[in-house]
Design a protein that fits this description.
single chain, mainly beta, 60s Ribosomal Protein L30, Chain: A, eight-stranded mixed β-sheet, 1 helix, 8 strands, 8% helix, globular, binds zinc ion
Length: 145
């Protein structure tokens, strides 16, 4: 394992359009800009939101869907490589019109109403994911391949 720190690379502030799939748009942005490692954050609002809770025994996500307007209170995550392609892993916290807060692992199909997104590229040792049998998750490995 390398203790060499990452250096900050390019910094992006951008928005995606109403109706766009949040996770797909983030990953497409990373592919287009060749961002292989970085930090993601954002705020905004969703039209519908798909998020998950990882069942540690069954090793699968329990899927939640909120259909309706919600505020994105927090979107936090990172970018690394899976099978050589930039992959965004992010968690989202939303507030509904009733003032209830919920959230979890961001899943595909989340449609934004509006969004203000931030990506800080990190430059350094390649960070890639591989299946970890103990958890059933694709976790970071320091093995280069
Ligand atoms: Zn997650």
């Amino acid at each position: 394992m390398s203790d060499k720190p990452y250096l900050t690379g390019r910094t992006y502030l951008f928005k995606i359009s109403k109706g766009d799939d949040l996770l797909a748009a983030l990953e497409d942005f990373c592919v287009e800009n060749q961002i292989k490692c970085g930090l993601v954050s954002g705020i905004g609002a969703t039209i519908s939101c798909n998020y998950g809770f990882y069942d540690q025994k069954k090793k699968t996500y329990i899927k939640h869907k909120y259909d309706g307007a919600a505020e994105i209170l927090s979107l936090a995550g990172n970018v690394s490589l899976r099978d050589g392609r930039p992959m965004v892993h992010a968690h989202i916290m939303i507030e509904t019109a009733e003032g209830k807060v919920s959230g979890g692992h961001l899943m595909g199909g989340t449609k934004v109403f509006a969004s203000e997104l931030f990506i800080q590229e990190l430059v350094g040792e390649e960070k890639s994911r591989k299946l970890d049998k103990a958890t059933g998750l694709f976790l970071w490995t320091n093995v280069k391949n």
